[in-house]
Amino acid sequence: MRSCPGTLVVSPGLRHPEACEPGPSGRCHGKKQTGRSWEPAAALSDGELQGPATSRGKGVPTLGDCGGRHAGAGPRGTGRGPGPPRPLRLQLSHSALRPLLPLGPLLSALLLLLLGTTRPAAGIAPELLYFMGNVTYPLNEQLSCCDTLGPLYDGISNDLRHWAETGISREALDLAVARYTTVGAQKGMTLAFYGGVAHVVDEVILDGLGHHINILLTYMLVMLDLQRQYGKQIPDCEFVIASSDRPLVLTAAQEAGKIPPLMRFCSSDYHADIQIPIFHFYTKKYTPRYLTPAKNLSDAYPWASRKPIVFGRFSKYYRHIHPLAPSTLKRGARNSTICKQESAFTVTCPVRAHFMEWAARKHPNVIDVRSGPRVSLSKHAAYKYLLHLDGQATSSRLEQLMPLRSLILKEESGYHSFYYHLLRPYEHYVPVWPAGSGPEDVLSAMAWAQEHDEEAERMAAAAQEVALTYLSKRARSCYWFRLLKEYAALQRFKPSPSGKPHVRTVEDYLLQVGRRHDRGKHLHKIEN
């Protein structure tokens, strides 16, 4: 396990979140403002953020490690020892200036100018901090942290292999814009970094996108967070992000040397989509909600006490498959046909519904996999064997199951996400139901696990370790940074805002459009 002790930097002049939670207008909402500001921060223990003095004397628990191994540090603790000493880092608050304010407006203004205003040093508008928080890391510490996560980046070169010889041409990028963004009536957008500042390049037409509006705005907030953390360390680059549910760039259908570069949250061996973290990491606030409680859940549900049955709860999404991607095609129980070709480009398969019907009819005593009643994810930890079935394509459920330290029986759907190369069969999970097989695999997987209980427990712990090490917000930030650097190195043109009539900063877009479109209901808080 690699970890990076980190010094969290909080923008000067911002109130402690327990004292005041700024709303979209920049004013306080919901919580009473106490008037306290950030105190000077002494040498912090790993994973702790020094907050204002309170009656309980507690600071704010935060994630101080690069990979997130000790995400539970703070008042509750997770069995983590103290971190190494680090130099004192002072953070000045405006409260320190109050005794000097009577000295005169000119001197007061000069001091405020020198020591910081309520606008963060990185230049992010305070109104947007309501949605993305106000915490970052010193650049040198973050870059050192990223250097410890080498295995996380191994999938990037594989994703970018399609452009290794030809590079990414302007023509190829224009194809991606025309085919996969709202310019071509699709669910995607063109973004860029110019001089370390995130930009929206083309007009993003939000009308008619439904819940995909939130997905696109979420990725914009992520870009703004990268801007704040890395600034000009991010090379100039232009790229397309799409929010569609399944991979789009079928490799065999592309003209040689002109494969459009498209970033999406899943791909397959037959697609050229460049993998990025799924938006659910951010909207579901993955680090505090799933990683932070992991150790406590493991303690609350010891392995020996967990129920030895296969458990899962799923919505009945249909799988969407391209007929020319054979590794994603599915067969049902007893080799039955469960898929239906809807068009030349789409085959649909009721994978989850078929499994639920088969399990309820044939094996209700050992397989509890249904669409309801709902069971909270934390209570999934009461079961030894957790089934993962993908949804329309790759499902974000897998990364939610990994911290629970149960053995995962993972459907081999043929789809994969940006971190799947870190997972190895029979080291981190038991594979079930690949192409050409059926749901009966789950029975043999469960039988194997029951006969190899200690090995199954080790596999469950190994999967949890991958999540804690490589899937935290800080680690994902490193992934984005490395991806953008390697992507930019392949560009065969000079990215520039010149001649682009709709180009604007992401910050301006979120302020002027994101907060106002449909009364701002699609712009939500993301993981801080």
TrEMBL record:
Classification via Pfam families: Glyco_transf_90
Keywords recorded for this protein, A-Z: Transferase
Feature: compositional bias, Gly residues: 65-81
Glycosyl transferase CAP10 domain mapped to chain residues: 233-494
InterPro entries recorded: CAP10 (IPR006598), O-Glucosyltr/Glycosyltrsf_90 (IPR051091)
Any one GO MF annotation of this record: transferase activity
Region annotation (Disordered) ranges: 1-89
Family recorded in the similarity comment: Belongs to the glycosyltransferase 90 family.
Name used for this protein in its record: Glycosyl transferase CAP10 domain-containing protein
Source species: Edaphochlamys debaryana
